[in-house]
Amino acid sequence: SSFVMGSLEEGLLPGGQRQRPWRTVVAWLALDVLASYVFWVAPWSLNRWGLGAIAVAAVGWRTVRFFQIANEEKLPYTVTKVASGSTTVYLVGTLHVSPRCPNDVRTTLEATQSHVALIELDEERLRRRVSYHGIRSEDAQQVSLQPDGETMHLGRGWQASHQGLCTDAARAVWNRKWASQTVSGVVRYDPDNPHGRDPWPKGSLTGHFALIDRGDPFPLAKRAWHAGRAGAVGLIVISDRAMLPVRIVQERVLGRLRTAVQQMSGSDPPVPVLMLSQDAGAALKARAQAGHKDVLSCLFRGDEFPARSLAAQLCQDMTLLCSGVAVLYGIMECAGVEAGGEFRAADEMATQLGIPCLCMDVDLDRLCSRLGRSLLPTPPNVWNACRLWLGFPRFLLATLFPGTGRLDLLGSVVLHVAAFKMRTWAAFALALVVTTQVCRVSGFFFSLIVGGVGEAATAGNVVDAAGRGHFEDSVNLLLFLFIWPQVATAVLFDRDEAMYQAIAARAACAPQSGEYRMTAVCGAAHANGILSKITERGLG
After folding, report:
1. What is the separation of C-alpha 255 from the centre of its chain, rounded to a whole number of angstroms?
2. Where would I find the H helices in 123-171?
């Protein structure tokens, strides 16, 4: 379905939100009605010979198109470019589980010598992917230390400052509750509970920062609850890795549910959590074990990194699970198939070339919010669904026979699939089977709801018992015709608009003189929607 829906936006959702002259709208609408009649209603259908002729024509079209495209920069076939003024945007269409994608991204960035790379991720997903590649200055939380007695060795992760000694630390996403507040306390290390797995006696850490080793993967949130219940003002964790994570993130939903049951609270931990590097943490631990009462202070920063409530995370995870997306990528991850390797390649290549790598996608909160609004049966949403179905034949034709200046969505996907390894094929086949079963279970619960509607209609004498089955089938069909294009609008078209806005915002920062080149890495289904917006609206 993404083959076709990736092309539906052009003309059908004109200019993202821009209004066209009413004569143009009426003309396109009349053309779509006529094409829909021929495609859906006319009393004939293509036989296998007709379908074969279309397939041969599509292959021939792509062959001619391949030799007609001037590709002076030796770019992969999955890349297309569009120019707007002095800015040139190279769009790399990807399939997230294909091993070909990272190579296409590296080749494009190196061949075009782009000034900036943009990727189809939001800040949260990017930070998770580069979690242990080294914390960046904009993500670090500075902490200061007032040593008790002689000054500790400055070469062990601490630097001298006007406040005494200071170092950078990783911060937990729930630390935002203490934004603009200064928290101070004496550092205390308990050798009998070095990892904080066991609860401390109530009140035993009052006014102290509890210092623990990271150790095993016991949840840090649960350790923070132990410290908070003992009266601590915060929890300091000594990292067990060479580099700090970008954030100390919340657990997955099952882990949070277990913690909520054990702590009898679904809220975030009651104390902030910081993580020190191995060197800084080891030096502080040695002093605490020697009996020094060093005072650690931290002025907590604000944070835009998403920190969701347990209820919100549960709703989002259930949505992804019922849709099959979480199952698909979960199986791929278990099979060792990297999904989204092109984004990691873009980040690494951008670092190597000395250019910024920026995000251009919406975060999960905004996506789920937009999806919820799009499924409301309001008149604009119903009209939008009708427009999409009316334009289906026209844009199916555009997908089969892409014009110059558009990404060949079908051809790009074929090239990416051809690069699959046996492990990817096996994981994809298993994921397809499991996802199908999950969707069937979701459909079963959905059918129960429709059955309830049918029962209510029969009880209210809206339909008789003999016509109840036909009534329920009609309700199912109407819901399908409404929900499918609305999901496509939220998942594809609205994200196309957000990514176009991000590209345009970056282009506005380009120098006034000279050519400015940008490489945007996105799923192949998004490429033509973004291209049409740049062509119609420019980047000014």
Report:
1. 21
2. 123-129
Contact status, residue 424 vs residue 44, Cβ threshold 8 Å: no
CB 136 within 8 A of CB 246: yes
Q: What's the N-to-C CA distance of the chain in angstroms? A: 33
92, 78 Cβ separation under 8 angstroms: yes
Q: What is the pLDDT along the chain (540 residues), one digit of tens a residue?
A: 443 444 444 444 433 444 567 777 788 888 888 888 877 776 555 667 777 888 888 888 888 877 776 555 678 889 998 998 889 999 999 998 899 999 999 999 999 999 999 999 987 777 666 554 556 667 788 999 888 776 555 556 788 877 678 899 999 989 989 999 999 999 999 999 999 999 999 999 999 999 999 987 788 999 999 999 999 999 999 998 877 888 888 778 888 888 888 888 888 899 999 999 888 899 899 889 988 899 999 999 888 777 788 888 888 888 877 777 778 888 888 888 888 889 989 988 998 999 988 899 998 888 888 988 999 999 999 999 998 998 888 888 888 888 878 888 998 999 999 999 898 899 888 888 888 888 788 788 888 888 888 888 888 888 888 888 888 889 888 998 999 999 989 989 999 999 999 999 999 888 877 889 999 999 999 999 999 999 988 886
Phi-psi region of 354 (alpha: psi -120 to 50; beta: other; left: phi over 0): left
Distances (CA, A) of 113 to 56, 77, 107, 118: 38, 18, 10, 14
65 Cβ contact partners less than 8 Å away, ≥ 6 residues apart:
402, 404, 408
For 144-277, where are the alpha helices, taking DSSP H only? 220-229, 253-263
Say how far apart CA 390 and CA 312 lie, in whole Å: 35
Distances (CA, A) of 305 to 46, 184, 441: 52, 24, 34
- Among 40, 16, 235, 26, CA closest to 143: 235
